[in-house]
Design a protein that fits this description.
470 residues; alpha/beta; Rossmann fold; Transcription Regulator spoIIAA; 4 domains; six-stranded parallel sheet; five-stranded mixed beta barrel; 15 helices; 19 strands; globular
Length: 470
């Protein structure tokens, strides 16, 4: 892929800013401020994309709201990873018929990974005729132009062409909360894991220029953001398309020189591209959290090959061993899929045994969900769901015991954590996250919100820690 075709030039981005002004003029003619709602499904990348969409909507003169019935423009930014997420979106689309009936001029937009799938776009075209605009992740940068077409042309607008994707710098952004920020460092994926739809809907890997990323992080640190998460479908392969001998470890070290009281996190990582160089950089950078989310997916080498995951159990264990050697305080989490097509009970128990061997701090666990358009969806899958559920329960039981035991080791210690939210529980009115990403429910004054505090841990359970401000 040629970089000149990937990077959108100033003229292309300027054209979108012009469409924002055109739509702002249309809105001003309404005699009132239009309202827009953005509902986000899925991963942190979708959250970051939604923040750009909200930025463009605000540039077009909209104020943001939380309820579809109050909105003149509704945007559903969707996920295609799990069947459950898609069902929720279709349910939401069905419910929007009522708001559209009450406000026939309401514009309903479907975007994100789910929208990029051709069969979804066709289903929306035929069965959800109240949806006005459908566009995929690769077309997000030209949302103002697409919305202008909805306003000025008769008929619905679809922009779901199959393409490698672009890099669009300078899009407006609305960051929520003022504590955490997301920074996309690359887009797309080249891995083609047999169960995953992402490469088909987000295009090929393309890395942002490191100076652009560093400048964005510096601006966020100076603005007082306390946690900045670097995003990519596989951050470990960052820079491979730049042809400048610059990788993710180099980027972390460059960012680490930025002054400020902040923490850098990143996700997601692919074991095949994780290196000792990366772990050394994590260990030596003062701003980088000693937290690693490294999806293993399975503890069985045969299943890993069927998943098209180009590493084996031994390689994974070597990576974890080195990471823990240079970062003894490392908090380690992972993703696991149980019930992959053709997986036997014995192979599933290999995964359970790996979990017991590694002792992850926490796991994100899933029963295999076939995604149309992926190779795994066509594989023979003879094991019934009920049997897979039994395997899944064993996995969860093993991990829950480990998480409870590791969390209990925090009791009596004082940890530094970012106080980031309020709860509905009067006993523990505040919540926080440790540098390792562990959730803490705590007693304390709301004045601590948005600051790092020392917290004495007084109790724990499988899923969280409990404490009080020191």
């Amino acid at each position: 892929m040629e970089r000149t075709k990937v990077l959108l030039d100033d003229a292309q981005m300027g054209r979108q800013r012009q469409f924002e002004e055109k739509i702002r003029t249309i809105h001003e003619g309404w005699g009132r401020t239009p309202r827009a709602m953005v509902d986000t499904f899925g991963c942190q990348q979708n959250v970051a994309d939604s923040q750009n969409i909200m930025g463009m909507l605000r540039a077009m003169g909209c104020e943001l709201c939380d309820k579809a019935e109050d909105a003149d423009i509704v945007v559903l930014n969707t996920c295609a990873i799990r069947d459950h997420a898609e069902k929720r979106v279709y349910g939401m689309l069905g419910a929007l018929t009522h708001s559209k009936k009450a406000n026939p001029n309401q514009v309903i937009c479907l975007c994100g990974c789910m929208a990029q799938r051709s069969e979804v776009a066709e289903k929306v075209r035929k069965s959800y005729r109240h949806v006005d605009l459908v566009f995929g992740p690769q077309a997000m940068w030209k949302f103002p132009e697409l919305l202008h077409q909805v306003y000025t042309r008769s008929g619905r607008v679809f922009s779901v062409e199959d393409e490698h994707g672009h890099i669009a710098e300078g899009m407006p952004v609305v960051r929520e909360g003022g504590i955490r920020a997301w920074v996309s460092i690359m887009y797309g994926c080249n891995n083609f894991c047999s169960y995953c739809i992402v490469p088909y809907v987000r295009g090929r890997e393309r890395s942002r220029d490191p100076e652009k990323i560093i400048a964005e992080v510096r601006e966020l640190a100076q603005a007082g953001y306390k946690e900045i998460t670097l995003l990519g479908q596989n951050v470990n392969s960052y820079g491979k398309d730049l042809d400048i001998d610059y990788d993710f470890a180099d980027l972390l070290r460059a960012i680490d020189t930025i002054e400020g009281d902040y923490l850098i996190r990143f996700m997601s990582s692919q074991p095949k591209d994780a290196t000792e160089k990366l772990f050394d950089a994590m260990a030596e950078c003062k701003h980088v959290a000693k937290q690693l989310h490294l999806p293993v997916q399975s503890g069985c080498d045969r299943v890993l090959r069927a998943m098209n995951r180009p590493y084996n159990k031994e390689k994974y264990l070597q990576l974890i061993g080195y990471a823990r050697k240079v970062m003894p305080e490392l908090v380690l989490t992972s993703d696991v899929i149980i019930g992959f097509p053709g997986e036997t009970e014995a192979e599933a128990m290999e995964t359970v045994e790996l979990v017991r061997q590694v002792e992850f701090d926490a796991l994100f666990t899933f029963i295999f969900s076939p995604r149309p358009g992926t190779p795994a969806a066509k594989m023979d899958d003879p094991v019934p769901r009920a049997e897979k559920q039994v395997w899944f329960d064993r996995l969860c039981d093993a991990q829950n015991e480990i998480s409870a035991r590791l969390h209990a080791q925090y009791v009596g210690k004082t940890v530094r954590a970012l106080v980031d939210g309020e709860t509905d529980d009067a006993r523990w009115p505040l919540s926080a996250r440790t540098a390792g990403g562990r959730l803490v429910h705590l007693v304390g004054d709301k004045s601590a919100l948005g600051t790092y505090q020392n917290i004495r841990i007084t109790d724990s359970n499988t899923w969280a820690l409990f404490g009080e401000l020191v």
